[in-house]
């Protein structure tokens, strides 16, 4: 069980992210929860492509005679990180405009004051 | 009443995550790797770059990079449009 | 937001050029070492965040203008699409400069070697286009959110 430590870390990331989404009321904390779930999924993609005792898939000055790690999950994770940046920037901008309009960041108050 | 349903649902989901993380296959032995073996063998001959990850991102799967650049551009357009009415 | 003390401003003056040059080094050598367009663009955009924090958002808008960043971002994405269409004789996104002897067209030695920069085909040009776009996009995001933070502050004594 101690060999599967990266998968247990991924489960902890996603569990903490969903706990923050369900139980917290401040809008900034909800944005942090979304960011935590995204980072957990990126970590899961990278640890799926590991081979024991292998080196990085680059041929410049590499020590010869060793196998290489799978390069395809790393290429998919690059795209996923950039999409995470776009999502976090947009949710923080919407939080700033809600604070300007309502004067508070509590989701119970924002739902009650319609006008 | 709503709090009890929330707590039970969260505990069921979290235990499902932990049980499936403990029973995953062993860390470090991928099962199928034929496509990646083809990429590692033939990336230097066909594209001429030493970095296999860059040749996958820009040459073998260039369409995904085009989509990602468009997503980043659309996010910036959305943010500029949101803060449009700022006067000094 | 206000600026910080004089020590921070002096260090930011000195370090700002080195961070941008290091970012460009990572972008251009993307086909030989780990890195590429996205990583180098993110490193170079952190120099603009450094200047914004250490000088305050009112002073730093005199030499980091939003219009130039927006122009460079559109230029970067248009250059990337033009490079993708230029190999349309055979297929979309075809690497027609690799192993051909023209511009970036030497043939690499198969196996472990120390890198030759003249190889790679269309990949270094696409790295430069994407790096320019990511640098400008992150700069625009940081500058507009700093200007909007002054707009959304509540008045303290009214």
Keywords:
heterotrimer; A: 115 residues; mainly alpha; Helix Hairpins; 4 helices; elongated; C: 158 residues
Instruction: Write the element-wise H/E pattern of chain C from the N-terminal end onward.
Output: HHHH
Cα(first) to Cα(last) distance of chain C is 20 Å
Tally of extended strands of chain B?
Answer: 0
Helix content of chain C: 55-70%
Per DSSP, what share of the residues of chain B sits in E-state strands of 2 or more residues?
under 5%
General form of chain B? flat
- The helix/strand class of chain B is mainly alpha
Average pLDDT taken over every residue of chain C = 88
Report how far the terminal alpha carbons of chain B are from each other. 50 Å
| Share of β-strand residues of chain C | under 5%
Percent of residues in helices of chain B comes to: over 70%
C-alpha geometry of chain C: elongated
* Gyration radius from CA atoms of chain C, angstroms: 20 Å
Strand segment count of chain C: 0
| Poorly predicted residue ranges of chain B | none
What is the total number of structural domains of chain C?
1
**Quick one: biggest sheet of chain C?**
none
Largest interface: A-B, 44 and 40 residues
Discrete helix count of chain C: 4
How many helical elements of chain B? 4
**Unreliable spans of chain C:** none
Summarize the structure.
Chain A has helices spanning 5-23, 27-47, 72-102, 107-112. Chain A is an all-alpha fold and 115 residues long.
What does it look like?
The complex is a heterotrimer of chains A (about 120), B (about 90) and C (about 160). Chain A is mostly helical and about 120 residues long. Chain A has a single domain (about 1-55, about 70-110), classed as Helix Hairpins, CATH 1.10.287. Chain A contains 4 helices and no strands. The mean pLDDT of chain A is about 90. Chain B has 4 helices and no strands. The longest helix of chain B has 21 residues, at about 1-20. Chain B has about 90 residues and is mostly helical. Chain B has one domain. Chain C has one domain. Chain C has helices at about 5-30, 35-55, 65-85, 125-150. Classes of the chains: A mainly alpha (about 120), B mainly alpha (about 90), C mainly alpha (about 160). Chains A and B meet through helix 1 and helix 3 of A and helix 1, helix 2, helix 3 and helix 4 of B.
